[in-house]
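Our consortium's second objective concerns turning raw sequence data into structural hypotheses that experimental partners can test. To show how far this objective has progressed, the report includes one record in full. It was chosen at random from the queue rather than selected for favorable results. The single chain below, 488 residues long, was entered without modification.
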Amino acid sequence: MVLTTPLWALIMVMRFLLMCCHDQASPPILQNEGNISQNNIDALKNTPCRYVVSLWPNVTTKTFEGILEGLIKVEEPMNYTIFNIADLNIKEIKLSTRDAQNETIEWKINQLFETTATHSLTIFFDELTPQNRRLQFYFSFSGEIREEWRGIYYKSYYVNGVERRNVFTNGYTLGIFPCVYQVRHEQSIELNLIHERNLTVLSNFALQENNTLTSGAIARLNYYLAFNLTDQNLKVTVFKFKRIPIQRFSFAIGEFAQMAKDSKNHTVKIYAPASQIKMAKYALNQSVKILNFYYNYTDNTLNPDLKEIGIVAAGNVGGYSSEGLIQMSPENLFYQPGVSPAELKHKVAFELAYQIAKLWFGNYLFVPSAFLNFALEGFAAYTANQAMASIVNEQNAENRYEEWFNQVMEDDSLAATQGFHGPKLANQKTQYNPFGFQKGALIVKMMERTVSSKKLQAAIQFLITRTPRQKFFRELSSFYVTIDRIFL
């Protein structure tokens, strides 16, 4: 018997209504596990959050490029709802909880979702006791992610009557931890940190819907990073990465230092390849005293035997300084055994210039307010993107670069009309123009495209003579031989 389309539609509607009614009575998934205890809910509302909810992809599914792009909504302390998962061809969802005894209970739901529908999946936990406070909840999806779902989404939830935001990002961010939060006291900041097993590759954690990196996006990173703190007098932040774009990594370091400004000591420990952390200290304010900085240069993989990589910062951390990036001496920032200060200075100068270039002209245009401390509105994102697109994509890249460089960069007044200007510093005593940084970004970006070292040298010399930050960019003039060796 073949059902007609209207009859099939009617059956589906009735089925949907029955499911909705059933949802009101008991959870459709864990209905045999008992209802939520109101006493547990009331207790959780009056105590700190005691459990972590994690999302992990099915690592065996090659087509799964990230976790589910949708929204996670925390309606109650023990009620987690995932919705807006339409168009994800989910073949199977595996739900599992792990209690303090590492016993795993799994539920498998086999359902082929209609690509035009929006589905809700609600999971209830019960009997959450103090002895079982690290209950974790794992998801495993099999399907493909839609590119247009990329972005950061969040919903509010409440702990102790205080609103917390649960961030759900995309890309290679493999975990979500809505109960990892910071508690702000009058004179201190307590960081409650997740277990380091959940620290993994974070690729797009700081991208908002407009693809602009902001300090607000960085601040929400504290929901992801770090480790269980019980001693309120100890301020520790732990990063453990296999790889991460260093500019966002740097901002995260600075953000945690900023958050610890009311404490006497703040320790930042980083576990990552040495090449990935060299720029991290540029995000720290000058008022932070760098006590030590050490890393293992020989091992570029993350493993249990990797030596500790750490930045220990102590002192009262103030706001970010746009001048601090320039005033800090490169040879004083880094220590590398067996490398002379002069050679190290050149390496650091190159690294800094190259990272600035990636900040300005990466896949997205990053305008890091925490890094250079100037307004987003002062930068012509569209102009710069269009110009660089025409430079990079066309065959006559060098000619187009020279044409645009001479037209825009040589005339400060013309550059200002296109949005290349900066605000006054906080002290209102000095007019700070980040125009020099933009020229530096263009120069270094074109190092990858230039085929003539003579053109490269001329461009750097032009940059030095034109920039209002001559002291900083003189550092660039002495290492173009190194750049030639790397790029050309």
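The partners drew two points from this record. Residues 5-25 form the longest helix (21 residues). Residues 17-488 have pLDDT under 50 and may be disordered. Both points have been shared with the crystallography group to help prioritize constructs.
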